[in-house]
Amino acid sequence: MHNRQSFTLIELLVVIAILAILIGLLLPAVQKIRAAAARLQCSNNLKQLGLAAHNYHVANERFPPGVYQRLFSSAPKYRGVTLFVYLLPYLEQDNLARGWDQTDPLNNTAGGVSSRTAAVLPLLLCPADPLAQNPVDGGSGRWYGLTSYGGNGGTRSYDPQFATNDGIFFVIGPGSQTAPTASPIRIGDVTDGLSNTILFGERSHMDPNHDSFVNNLATPPSGQSLSLMGQVGWWAASTGRLAAGDVLLSAYGPLNYRVPLGYANRALLAPPVNNYNDYLSYNDRRICAFGSNHAGGANIALADGSVRFLQDSISPVTLQRLCVRNDGQVVDSY
Predict the structure, then answer these.
(1) Between 219 and 30, whose confidence is greater?
(2) Which pTM was predicted?
């Protein structure tokens, strides 16, 4: 009869060590595969957004406005319809689009978490963009779904009272502070060429330094407040004059711009931040900035329907040329 030999403790430890080494070698490869898959899915999302915008243009002979903003006599005084709402029928969201109240957009918030504005649309979300909460509470019982993408607002899209309106999308209508009588952009208005002009791009919702200022700065007497990055990006923003910050991005901030330092080191910023008003220049650049959590850059959809990956190293000048539709500055390479 043969005696069964068992593993010695040393042999068992050797086996465990080998398995640990193998797992350690495998994990980076798995992470790279996941990151590549997320980037590809994000690229596909932008491709679909670009296709939807072009189909909208075919039907309406122009792209949708960034926001069409109306003026009401009752509070909230300003209410609007965003470009993503206009694109719903072209994103296979006919059921959501059907019955959307464009006359008084505030009515679409009825129902709280179950409202139309609170819908979470996978096509509008990048897999690499983690969101702690979606939809988010917009206050007064109104909830909003978030998006990882924004339309190209040109040189500057936020604060909308300073918008340049030289991109593809901007705020129009009676409530607009800069272009109340303007019309949406047509392909013929993109004189720099569709392949040289951004249509959509990514937004990153991660910025602990920015959030530290939001959490610590005193709100001014006017009641206006800043938003945590995880709360920005309401695809169906319906009230107030700041909806452009939710659905538009621009070259006002460099690609993947993050606030350089947190609240505790605010005196070291250049210029330093002593109060709410000092921080607005940093806040506006952050809200405007294209960016992502993909390594090395961010995806963009060009106005010709193609999708490109912009490297973090792209210069602010080149980014601005890609954002402005009609400055005559054609970009050969980037």
Answers:
(1) 219
(2) 0.90
